[in-house]
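In response to a reviewer's request, we include the raw inputs and outputs for one of the modeled complexes. The two entities were modeled together in a single run.
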Amino acid sequence: EDQVTQSPEALRLQEGESSSLNCSYTVSGLRGLFWYRQDPGKGPEFLFTLYSAGEEKEKERLKATLTKKESFLHITAPKPEDSATYLCAVQAVYGGSQGNLIFGKGTKLSVKP
Amino acid sequence: GAGVSQSPSNKVTEKGKDVELRCDPISGHTALYWYRQSLGQGLEFLIYFQGNSAPDKSGLPSDRFSAERTGGSVSTLTIQRTQQEDSAVYLCASSPVPDYGYTFGSGTRLTVV
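The model returned the following structure tokens for the whole complex.
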């Protein structure tokens, strides 16, 4: 069964304290791995798509990396405005639901000034 | 429009009543998805529309749930005979192609009392 596990469930950081969020996945064949940011009361906001092991993408203080079993979202020198829930999702190459994403439960990040 | 629009933003209904939730995707996006987000749970896939193809309904939790997409644009998710366990945030997303980053709406918060 395809599944996504994110850790930790919650993470508290001081402003400027770099850290990483983990996304472990089990999927029959990976078409892509997606990272989203979700603020309270809003829908998820697309951040990155990674397609193959070794791929990396960056956006401001965020950097996403991918291996064959997991992905990391590295946050460098975070600011309070980075506080949000970060969601990881995978899309399988084979499956009855071509096109839909399988989401993890997310990591709730709080950055204190 | 500029983004995915969902209405209503909030809906309170009595157990046993039917509800309709509306999604207006980004113009030109051929793929449209419905997800459900319950408290403490990850996003749960419900249904997927791609162009004029038959929808993928594999995620619908029961036959009380149905969805349609008219003219390849607006979609309506209907829940018949609502139950308390249907209470959740219902999110709609669209994308220009199936494996591209989805753009989510802000969701409809459904409360069944």
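As requested, we also summarize the result in words. Chain A has one domain: 3-112. Chain A has no helices and eleven strands.
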